[in-house]
């Protein structure tokens, strides 16, 4: 229903937590360890009156090829192709990592529009990572906390042009 939104990012940034938050019921399992999400999950999500199909990916975790390029293949690539818009998550508490930068380079070349989401921004610990993420060249980051449900208004505004 509506448009299709894919959640992309390296392991442990909070993709499944965001998925669960927007789906409104717990259909994806969230674990502390990366590598536990095996399947691509799709569900009907929404924010307020905005409805969309949401795709949770675990492409990186599923890598059988150890190279970074190999890890980009498969599920993640397919989700980017299928989606009308991509939510690219970073962990603002961890800051921008080389793998985030690699993803960003790839996403900048992709025709699918990208919304940069700086997750784990509750409190003050995310501020340096939030500012650092402006350097990824993907536009202004949306400060967000999937765990606490903060930033939904800004995410709504960012999604609106794609609805
Ligand atoms: P995924 O591997 O990208 O799907 O990440 P998960 O959704 O499994 O989350 C990884 C870890 O980050 C879990 O321990 C979550 O509880 C935690 N996490 C997710 N969102 C937030 C957030 O907004 N703030 C904080 N502090 N932790 C979060
Ligand atoms: Mg996950």
TrEMBL record:
Coiled coil: none annotated. Belongs to the TRAFAC class TrmE-Era-EngA-EngB-Septin-like GTPase superfamily. EngA (Der) GTPase family. This is GTPase Der. GTPase that plays an essential role in the late steps of ribosome biogenesis. The lineage of its organism: Bacteria, Pseudomonadati, Pseudomonadota, Alphaproteobacteria, Rhodospirillales. GTP 1 binds at residues 9-16, 56-60, 119-122. Associates with the 50S ribosomal subunit. The chain holds residues 1 to 163 of 478 of the full protein. Residues 3-163 form the EngA-type G domain. It comes from the Bacteria.
């Amino acid at each position: 229903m509506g448009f299709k939104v894919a959640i992309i990012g390296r392991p442990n940034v909070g993709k499944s937590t965001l998925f669960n938050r927007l789906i409104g019921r717990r259909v994806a399992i969230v674990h502390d360890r990366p590598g536990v999400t095996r399947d691509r999950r799709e569900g009907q999500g929404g924010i307020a009156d905005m409805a969309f199909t949401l795709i949770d990916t675990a492409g990186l975790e599923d890598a059988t090829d150890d190279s970074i390029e190999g890890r980009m293949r498969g599920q993640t690539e397919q989700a980017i192709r299928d989606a009308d818009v991509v939510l690219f998550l970073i962990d603002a508490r961890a800051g921008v990592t080389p793998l985030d930068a690699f993803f960003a380079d790839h996403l900048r070349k992709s025709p699918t529009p990208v919304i940069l989401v700086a997750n784990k921004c509750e409190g003050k610990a995310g501020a340096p990572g939030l500012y650092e993420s402006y350097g990824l060249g993907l536009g202004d980051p949306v400060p967000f906390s999937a765990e606490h449900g903060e930033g939904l208004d800004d995410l709504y505004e960012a999604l609106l042009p794609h609805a």
